[in-house]
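INTERNAL TRANSFER SHEET
From: sequence group
To: structure group
Subject: Transposase

Please process the attached sequence and return the structure record in the designated field. Keep the field labels unchanged so the import script can parse them.
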Amino acid sequence: MLSVGIDTHERIHYAEIQDEKENKLWHGKIRNIKEDFESLIDKIKKIENSNNDKVEFIFMNPTGNYHIPLKYFLENNNFTVYMVDARKTLNLRKMINLNTIKSDSEDAHILAATPWHDPKYREYTGHNRSSLSSISRERSIVVKSITAIKNYIHSDLAAVFPEFTDLYSINSAAGMAILYEYATPYSILNAGIDNIIKSIKKASKGHYRIEDINRLMETAENSIGIPDKDDAYKFKIRMNISRLRDEMNNLKNIEKEIISRSSNNGDVNNLTNLRGLGIINSAIIVSEIGNIEQFESALKLQSYAGKCPDIEGSGGKTHSKGITHVRNKFLSNAVYESAISLVMNKNKEFYDIFNREIGKKKSNVQAYIAVSKRLLFHIYSIMKNHKPYKEKMVGNYKRYA
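Return from structure group:
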């Protein structure tokens, strides 16, 4: 048998072909163009003929979306491509490289050597997600951007108007209107109460309380913020408020698209039957899982979502190092957020599990992970059987939660 390892990048991939004894039969670079893809196929065929053997395995690491065109091309040419998470090959790298310096060519060698050192990877050709996941992942990027922008604004306000966030949320209509136009205590006082009212009325469609505005003016008068003599902080805050508005609008449009594309999805509709589990997180979960038949059991799904222990062993003994970090982080985050929502909405089964774990002196995070594991068990059942949620008693199915 022969094996191919391909370390993927944006413009150039590094490939190696080797035999079962890890003899390097060929290695080289492949540009991310069709001509080089075809040259790789020709090279494989020539080596197969000269060695009177067949390439049984092509191992590739998923790097962003850079690997997708080459993987698609190889599969269309009747090759089976196996995906290997770089984090999972860490021990193999140490064993082969003996901790030498990491390089792209060495990565290709390690990937090609994977079937000889760890046969289990011969069984995994990668996980296929729903096409909706590309949109839901864009949502994750926008949410992170919103968080970062809000942190920038908070940081600047801490210098010039630290009391502002006690009065208004920076992402509320009134809060953004005030910060975009004025931002600093001096600007607010200089504008006068009539202009402040005018800005807030326009932003909040006429809804405001005069006592809140009076409180704003009084707080601005007595603020401990530093003087913004050259309006540098005011400029930064205004720019970030503009960015925040744009990203919040992007988030609104993305979520509208997710809801539209999920409206006729039976799995999403079944998941939303759980009180406290909304359509957005349900859609993200279903899109990241893809076809449930890819998972042999609920435990396999839990492992994919990173809600299983990371096991380390030596001398015939094993112990847990905590929850594994090798996971689908988008699925993991959506499930964890859903677990919090289920508990906050006091969905009985999940609320009882949370309190059971807290009663065992577990932290909130550990308790929510236990809820997440039970939720994944139900998700597996719901998607496998195409039936809505059915409550289980807390004492049952201990192996899953």
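Handover comment: The longest strand covers residues 12-19. The chain has 17 helices and seven strands.
Transfer complete.
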